[in-house]
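Q: I have two molecules that I believe assemble together. Could you output C-alpha cells for the complex as a whole instead of separate predictions?
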Amino acid sequence: MDKLIGACLVAQSGGPTAVINASAYGVIRTALDDDTITHVYGAAHGIRGVLDDILYDLDLEDEHELRLLLNTPSASLGSCRYKLKDYTEDDTDYRRIMEVFKKHDIRYFFYIGGNDSMDTCNKISKFLQKEQYLCRVIGVPKTIDNDLYGTDHCPGFASAAKYVITSCMEMRRDCNVYDYYSAVIVEVMGRHAGWLAGAAGVATATGDGPDLVYLPETDFDMDQFLDDVKRIMDERGDCMVVVSEGIHDKNGKFISEYGAPDAATDSFGHKQLGGVASTLVSYVKQKWGVKKIRGVELSLLQRCSSHFASATDINESFAAGRAAVKAAVNGMTDKMMAFHRLTDVYGDYACEVIPQDLSLAANTEKKVPREWINEAGNGVTQEFVEYVLPLIQGTPNLPLENGLPRFAKLKRIVAK
Amino acid sequence: MDKLIGACLVAQSGGPTAVINASAYGVIRTALDDDTITHVYGAAHGIRGVLDDILYDLDLEDEHELRLLLNTPSASLGSCRYKLKDYTEDDTDYRRIMEVFKKHDIRYFFYIGGNDSMDTCNKISKFLQKEQYLCRVIGVPKTIDNDLYGTDHCPGFASAAKYVITSCMEMRRDCNVYDYYSAVIVEVMGRHAGWLAGAAGVATATGDGPDLVYLPETDFDMDQFLDDVKRIMDERGDCMVVVSEGIHDKNGKFISEYGAPDAATDSFGHKQLGGVASTLVSYVKQKWGVKKIRGVELSLLQRCSSHFASATDINESFAAGRAAVKAAVNGMTDKMMAFHRLTDVYGDYACEVIPQDLSLAANTEKKVPREWINEAGNGVTQEFVEYVLPLIQGTPNLPLENGLPRFAKLKRIVAK
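A: Yes, here they are, computed for all two components at once.
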C-alpha cells in the first residue's frame, strides 16, 4: 500500500448529538498524532464550509480545549443540511469541492453524520475516484435515530436513549404523586424508526417507566390506544405513555396530522395542528374527561443533553473517529466505520469497529424488528431492553467549572 | 422545657421537586434516631392522608431504601393540593385531623411544602393550640419557585435552577449549529415570580446561555421583544430566549392569553391558546419570517429531574428536615425552618437554618427585586447571578443500578 502524505479534513453534518464532537475529537487527535497527515482542518458547517472554502485550522487549537470536545454537545465545527445533486446531472458542487481539496492538499476526508450525510460522503468519494483525485474518504456514523444500516448501533443513539430513559424514570415519579387520576404523554423523536421511543421500555424494566410505548413500526389505532389508557388508569390511577413523533394509522396518516378532536378550524376548514403528544392529550381529555394530563415534548434536549450521556457512547464515538483515521492512513477508502457487537471473554458486552461499504449505509434505513415489539404494539420486548442496556452504561467524567459543565471553546481560525 | 413523648408524622404537599424527599429523609432519619419520638409515620398524599387515616408506618422501612430518598425525585409519600377551609367558618377537617392525631398519638407534625402548604400547616398549628392538643408543628419549605418569604432561598429551587441552566447551556450549543437564522424560545415555570427563569442568566454568564430573559416582575412589551430578537439575530445569526410562563403586558394580560397572531378561532371567536413559548414563536415567525424557530417547554422535568441536582440543595434540604425535628424535640412549635445566608471564615458561601413564624411565611410572596433585573427588562444583573451560583454547586453522589438512577422503593405499609 502506498503511503499517502497530505492534509486531513473533518466535517460534521445533520442533526447534532451529545457525542458527534467525541467522534470529531477521535479524528482530530489521531490525525494530529499521525506523521503522514501534514495538517488537520475542520470544515465550517459540513460540506457548506468546503463549498465556501471556510476551513478551520485545527493545528492552532489548544489541546485542552480539543479534549473538552469529548463532553461537549452539538457540532462544534457547525453542521448543515445541504443535499448534493447527483454528479451525473450537475457536477458543479463536486468540481468546487475538488478545487478546495486541491488548494489545501486534502488527501483524507472524514464526514460525520447520519443517512443523508453518508449519502453525501458516498457521492464525493465516488466522484473523486472517477476524477482520479487521490483522497481517502471515510464516513463516521452519527444519529440519535439509530436507523443506519450495517451497524449494530449508531454513535449518539445511546446517549439520547439514556436521556429518554432517565427523563421517563423521573417523570414517572412525578406523574403518580397526586391522589387523583393523572397522565403524561411523552413525545420522542423518530419519524420512521422507533429506536429512541422504544428505549423508554428500559425505564419500564426498572419499575419507573411508561405503561405504554408506541413506535412507527406498527400501525397506531386511536380506539385501541384510548382503551389501553383507560385500562391502565383504572388499574393504577395514573398512566404514562411514550410515543414516537412518527406514529401513524393503518392508512399511513400521521397521528400528528389528526389534530385535536375539538380543534378550531381556519377559514379553509383546516384544523390547527400541534405535535403528536398534544393531539393524543386532546383525545384522552375528550374521551375520558381526564383533566390532569400533560403532553411533554422532549424536543432539542434529547439530542443535545450531554451531562448524563453514556460513557460507553462517548468512548465508542471517539473510537469510531480514531479507527477511521487509522484505517485511512493504512489505505482504506470509501467505507463507513460501523459497530459489530461482541461478547467478551467474560460474557459481557464488547464492541469492535468494522468497515462497511459507504453506498450500502447511504441508502438503507434500519427499523426496529417487529419481533422486538410486543404483539399488541404498545410496548417493547425484553430482547429490545437487552439490546439497549449495555449501550447506556457508564457515567461520563464531566469537566466542570463553577459546578456546571465546561464545554470546549474552539478558536476556529479560518485557514487562508 | 417539657419533654414531649409521642409519635411523629411527616407529610409532603404541593408540586414535587428534586429534593422534597431529601427533606423528608432529614425528618425521618432524625426522628427514628430520637428517643423522645416513639414512632415515625408518613401521611399518604399530604393532609389528605391524615383526613383518610392513611399513615405509612416508616419504622418498617429498610434503612437503605430510606437513604435513597436523598436522590429520589418527586414526593415518595405522595402529595396533594388540598386546601383547608378557615376553621372559624368550618372546622370539620380540623376536628378529623385532631382525631387521627390522637388515635396515633401524633405529637410532632412536619409539613413539607410551599406557600399553600405553609398556610395549611399554620392553620393546623393554630387550631391545635386553640384546642390545647399538645403537638409541635413545624413547616419545612419547598418550592422550585423560590417565592417563600422569610428565607434566603427555598429547598428545591437550586436543583431546578441547575436543570434550567444546564439545559440552556446544552440547547444554546444546539441552537447555533446551522448556517442559517435559527432561534429557540424556552418556557420556564413561574407564574408570579421569575426566580427560575432568571437563573438562566447564569448560563449566559458561562458564555452559553440565552440572549434575552423575561420575568413576570416587569411588564412585557411585544414590540420591544420583537425588536430585541431582530437585533440579536442580525448580530449573531441565532437567538435564544427564556421566558417565565407568567409574563404579562402592562395591563396585566398574560402573554400566553394572546394566542398566535394567525391562530384559528373557534365558533365563538376565541383563539386557540398554546403556551407562552408557542405564542412568542408564532409572533416571531409572522413578524420576521424566521422559519427555524422552536418553542421548548421545560415542563415536568424542571421540577423532577434529579440526576444532576445541586448537592448543596440536597444537603440543605436534608438539613432543614433534620433541624425541624431537633427544634421540635427541644420545644419549638409553630415555625417554618428557613435559610439564612452567611459567609464562612474563608469568605465562601455558608447557610444556617433559622426558624421563622409560620404565619409570616404562609401569606407573603417573595419576588425578584427589580434592581436584579436589567433596565430594559430583558436580562438579569450580575448580582442575581452571584445569588444563584453558590446554591447550585456540587454534583450528587448518585446511586446507580445498571447505569441508571436507583430510586427509593418504599414499602408504604399502612399503619392500623
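A: One point stands out. The mean pLDDT of chain A is 94.
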